[in-house]
Amino acid sequence: MATQSESQIKHHPDHWSFTSNYHHHVERTVHPVIVELIKWATQTSPPDSSSAVLDDGCGLGTVTAEVKKSFPDLSVLAIDSAAGMLEAVNRKTEKHDWKNVTTRLLDGGNLHSVSSNTITHAFACTYIDLAHNATACIKELHRVIAPGGILGMNTWADPIHPSIATPWTKACQQVYPEFKAPLVTSPKWSTADQIKHNLEKAGFKDVQTKQVITHWRWASPEEMTEWFFNGGNPVCGRWHEALVEEVGGKLEGMRERFHEELVKEYREVGGQLLNEEVVNLTIARK
């Protein structure tokens, strides 16, 4: 049974495989904060030649790529439950000729093929507050991390995600004034106190969290509109479902209204549309 720390978004690994073709839009938003997280974790616990890195819920392999830039000889295990995401990581591995990178199709809540106490640096980026089984994922991370090893993770600070929810809500309220934006990630991972409680409950210690700002970046309102409606991201699907299920609305005609609100809500900088989003960066020790 799901606990309060877990997301209620309806998703399946196949959904994430489908959206892998559009996921670079999300990757460029979280990339700067993942770079900062890796720097923080590796400065706190400097890796050596015997270190083993886990990229848990690897997505398109942002963590793997950044680890390889700074520590090209380190062993990295990249796992995801979506085959489409792993295919993207494998393509990058071949393109960049990365050494010591292994990919495995695994759910974060059951790392059965990863031995206990073997990982020195584990990263769980942009997925714990989306997971159906977040509690199990954190327990498994604690199991596989070696004593003294470090966990680095990021979660969204606002479970409504105003950079996207605000223009969507305003668009919907033009026709359905009673519409309210739903939570799309678990609020139990949105503050430092909540994160500390969840990680310490799983056995972690020395938990530190800081909030940083990143930006959604879009080449145009058309690009964001296409991603939002046709990209297959389960988070976007939750916004669509809320309109239909909670107020009996219809998606027909909403594309144009959403496009109009994006122009109002986002600012143009250097030919791009930008909007801020706050992210939690966390490190913890086993």
From TrEMBL:
Highest taxon listed in the record's lineage: Eukaryota
Location of the Methyltransferase domain: 53-149
InterPro entries: Methyltransf_25, SAM-dependent_MTases_sf
Name of the protein: Methyltransferase domain-containing protein
Organism: Endocarpon pusillum (strain Z07020 / HMAS-L-300199) (Lichen-forming fungus)
